[in-house]
Amino acid sequence: MMEPAPARAQAGSPQPATGDAYQPAFDPRRETQWWLMWRRFRQNRLSVFGLIVIGLFYLTMVCFPGFIAPYYHDRKFDDYVFAPPSKIRFVDEEGNFHWRPFIYGRKTELDFYTLSWVFTEDPTSKHPIYFFVRGDSYRLFGFIPANIHLFGTITGEPIFLLGTDRLGRDLLSRIIYGGQISLTVGLVGVILTIFLGTFLGTVSGYYGGTVDNIIQRVGEVLLSFPDIPLWAALAAAMPPDWSQITVFFGISVILSLRNWSGLARQLRGKVLALRESEFVLAAKGLGASDLYVIFRHLIPSTLSHIIVIATLSIPGMILAETALSFLGLGIQPPMASWGVLLQDAQQVSVVLNRPWLLLPGLFVVAAVLCFNFLGDGIRDAADPYMDHR
């Protein structure tokens, strides 16, 4: 008995796939190196979290510090020295619920036993909190005059979400303005470090011989200088008419000319293994120049390591600024940075009685951890074809 003939395929109907399994068509517009990197990066939740937090830090503290901060960082409230954080309330003392949050006014009394100010809330004085209120003047993006702040009271009662310092200055405002310096001062130094370390390290490993010896010996001499004494010497050698931010910026640039040697040594070892690879020998056999091989093949092959070093160098600069300002060698008052803010928390009595003065340290820890999370995710995403299990 003859088997029935297969039905004729209709015009325009999809043809059955040949082979073991159907393979979707390759889309070069999507299956690119950068798209694969982004897809792998999104799979790392800690890295995405770090990217979001860092983005919020830069958006809040670098782009819109005057708008987010309720007051100017150096504004003093003489009646609120070492005031604890304000309590945001929705329910008053009578048990009535309010849709709009509010704070109570404060009464200030002197404790003659400890000779410190004691703050008590006044339930008869309620001050609602509003968004987009007028306050201290500032310049949006550095040149647009403005006086609108994200939140505040319209009655004139100050609100201190994180308390005040020894001069009655709002700690939240000082943390926001201080982050503007701590998060940006070292960026130029990091860029110079990455650029010099990448180029010199790749050249050292690619050429070897005399070039390699010269670069590595110069790097070893630069690494022999200790950091803290070098900072102190550079801070004393800067011209006295320079501002504090200019002095710290200059020191950061000078130290970046020294710190490239660590990255250069690491890339040298990687390039020594890559320069005998098939793709490098093929490029040289086809007549490619040394600069083409370096910038087109060797540096992209070490991209994941360079990115990790870059993301780790930024928190390193943040920690350096914090430590040096804490020791009195970096940014100095009245300018605000996270290191300057931590100077008020050097005494044990302050830590025990006024623990809110330690909050700038939490921002330092959060920024450093998020940069490390981001660097770890970018490192894995830079090798999208490698299985990181």
SSE arrangement:
Blueprint: H1 33-42, H2 45-63, H3 65-68, E1 89-91, E2 97-111, E3 116-128, E4 130-140, E5 144-152, H4 171-182, H5 187-207, H6 209-223, H7 227-237, H8 244-274, H9 278-285, H10 290-301, H11 303-327, H12 338-341, H13 348-353, H14 359-381
Antiparallel strand pairs: 1-2, 2-3, 4-5
Helix pairs in contact: 1-14, 2-4, 2-14, 5-6, 5-8, 5-11, 6-8, 9-10, 11-14
Protein model, in words:
The protein is α+β, with helices and mostly antiparallel strands and 389 residues long. Among the domains are: 89 residues, no CATH class; 144 residues, no CATH class. Helix content is 52%, strand content 13%. The strands form 2 sheets. It has a 3-stranded antiparallel β-sheet, with no helix packed on it. Strands 4-5 form a two-stranded antiparallel ribbon. A hairpin with a 4-residue loop joins strand 2 and strand 3. Helix 2 crosses helix 4. 28% of the residues are buried.
Short description:
The protein is an alpha+beta fold and 389 residues long. Helix content is 52%, strand content 13%. α9 (278-285) packs antiparallel against α10 and α11 runs antiparallel to α14.
Which features would summarize this protein structure in a list?
389 residues; 14 helices; alpha+beta; 13% strand; single chain; elongated; two-stranded antiparallel ribbon
